[in-house]
Design a protein that fits this description.
Layout (H helix, E strand, L loop, with lengths): L3 H17 L2 H5 L39 H4 L7 E5 L5 H10 L4 E6 L2 H14 L4 E5 L12 E7 L8 H11 E15 L4 H5 L1 H5 L6 E2 H10 L3 E11 L3 H4 L5 H8 L4 E10 L12 H6 L8
Parallel strand pairs: 1-2, 1-4, 2-3, 4-5, 5-6
Antiparallel strand pairs: 5-8, 7-8
Helix pairs in contact: 1-5
Length: about 290
């Protein structure tokens, strides 16, 4: 059994390799795990190419949804992308929030941060920045983000509860998130659960869909909505690296499902309108005799 730190280091090493390999290799594998299929499969990722702000150099083919498409980003918003990779979702978010907004990408892997910063410099974006950090303990102040997005990342994190708590901490009251992730319905075969490659490939680190939603609810979020859901089919020529032919047949007949979901939720509270109330007016309405 791997410890949380061992799992994190596995992911860091694997995604350092991914940052340096061709997109075609990433797309033909399971979230870039390197378990290449003999046919070209886009196993999990969706097509970004029609979205405003899309940049091909920043798209490594590692996602499992289009969270920025569903994130309800407005002009001037501060947007944070968890597991920002080469910057793909950040640049799409930047097209929506505009020059008056700000986009912050956070990634665990130095090679990804370097790649994202290079892409931002090429594009001349001055309101997009990338910070290296662990999303279980984000390098962000409290109540900073209007919107948080993430694409196929939380399933890689051992302590998902810590990440959800950090999302709550860093969102402004009234802010919201839209996160695409991998979840399960039913139990994966033990061989897949133990496989390091499949963990770094987004599958064996996934939890049950109902547990995922409940975790969000337990951490105080409201208006939780599944915005999109799709079944993920892993090709046999990837599964055969982990399972026998009989085990593959049993797995397919088990009713177990691997799903990509995009989940939306809000942090309770009223958003600031942008106008600052004078201090004396605030003080005048603080006693027990008023504001009842």
């Amino acid at each position: 059994m791997h410890t949380n730190n061992q799992l994190k280091e596995m992911v860091r090493q694997k995604y350092s390799e991914i940052a340096l390999q061709e997109k075609s290799v990433n797309q033909s594998s399971c979230c870039g795990s390197g378990s290449c299929s003999t046919d070209v499969y886009n196993i999990m990722n969706d097509d970004y190419s029609n979205l405003e702000g899309y940049n091909a150099d920043a798209d490594l083919g590692l996602g499992c949804g289009l969270p920025t498409q569903y994130a309800r980003i407005k002009k001037g918003d501060v947007v944070v992308d968890l597991g920002s990779g080469a910057g793909n979702d950040c640049f799409v978010a930047r097209a929506q929030t505009g020059e008056t907004g700000k986009v912050i990408g956070i990634d665990f892997t130095p090679a990804m941060i370097d790649k994202a910063r290079t892409n931002a410099e090429k594009l001349g974006y001055h309101n997009v920045e990338f910070r290296q950090g662990d999303i279980e303990k984000m390098p962000l102040n409290d109540n900073i983000a209007d919107v948080i997005v993430s694409n196929c990342v939380l399933n890689l994190v051992p302590n998902k509860d810590a990440v959800i708590k950090e999302i709550y901490r860093t969102l402004k009251p009234g802010g919201h998130f839209s996160i695409s992730d991998i979840v399960l319905s039913g139990e994966l075969p033990r061989a897949i659960q133990r496989a390091a490659e499949m963990y770094a490939g987004c599958v064996s680190g996934a939890i049950q869909k109902q547990d995922y939603i409940e975790l969000i609810k337990q951490n105080g979020f409201a208006n939780i909505t599944v915005q999109k859901e799709k079944l993920i089919v892993v090709p046999d020529d990837i599964l055969k690296d982990y399972l026998t032919a009989e085990e593959i047949a049993e797995f397919k007949n088990s009713g177990t499902g691997i799903y990509s979901v995009t989940v939306y939720a809000e942090k309770p509270g009223a958003k600031e309108t942008g106008s600052v109330q004078p201090k004396e007016e605030k003080a005048a309405c603080c006693g027990p005799e008023c504001c009842n």
